[in-house]
Amino acid sequence: SEAGLRGGAAGAAYTAAKHGITGLVKNLAVMYRDQGIRANMIAPGPTATGMGVDTRPDAHGPSVITNLIGANIGRIGSADEQAAAIVWLASAAASFVNGAVLPVDDGWSAV
Description:
Blueprint lengths: L11 H20 L9 E4 L2 E2 L14 H7 L7 E2 H12 L10 E4 L7
Protein name: SDR family oxidoreductase
GO molecular function, one term: oxidoreductase activity
Family: Belongs to the short-chain dehydrogenases/reductases (SDR) family.
């Protein structure tokens, strides 16, 4: 998640774990580059997946995440938007991309 790009109030263990994943991906990118293996990751921001978001049609919106992020983001992303970023990273169009951490968060990690 984008918690691997900055500090946050999610707790020290959570933030450290996310930074650890980021470091692991960067290490793998260097270690396996010569074998033609790329390692990249996305850093998803708030995403409507049903976890922390009430996605029922009659719901009053994504209350849990909205309460957490306040006014720092324009909208909450979809799982399809996260998947599109992953598909691009795995495609030939990203063949020279290695060791990248791609925020998919509508700019939330830039705030």
